[in-house]
Amino acid sequence: MATIFSRIAAGEIPSFKVAEDEKHFAFLDINPVAKGHTLVIPKKEIDYIFDLSEEDYADLQQFARRVAKAIEQVMPCKRIGVAVMGLEVPHTHIHLIPINKESDMNFFKEKLSLPAEEMEKIATNIRGAFK
User: CA geometry: angle at 20 spanning 35 and 85, to 5°?
Assistant: First the structure.
């Protein structure tokens, strides 16, 4: 059975898409720890990031880098924090989080609840900066 992330990438479940190519998909986390918190996934459904082939791993990292550069252009932050935990959904995913201090990446703090209009505006801005 397809994971929720596969269903999002296939368009079966709505998302705030940030970027896409033939092998990858990036979308805003619906429970963000910061505005602009983005998830980057391979379209190929593989549970654990280190089970990706070397080529697929490198391609995913290059795609994530491009997404991070786009986020940096439109979200006020000092850096883009990167986290790979992968326990919530059995599908490889990278968290890209705009941060100004290390505590901004605290996954245990209360998540933001942003209106759909704001999420769409953030996604649109990041998409516009994606190269």
Answer: 55
4-129 fold: HIT family, subunit A (3.30.428)
Q: Where are the alpha helices (DSSP H) in 1-131?
A: 4-9, 54-74, 116-129
Threshold 0.70, pTM exceeds = yes
**Look-up of token digits 């850096």:** 79
Q: Which of 37, 91, 93, 95 is catalytic?
A: 93
Give tens-digit pLDDT for 74-110. Answer: 999 999 999 999 788 999 999 999 999 999 999 998 9
Active site residue 91: no
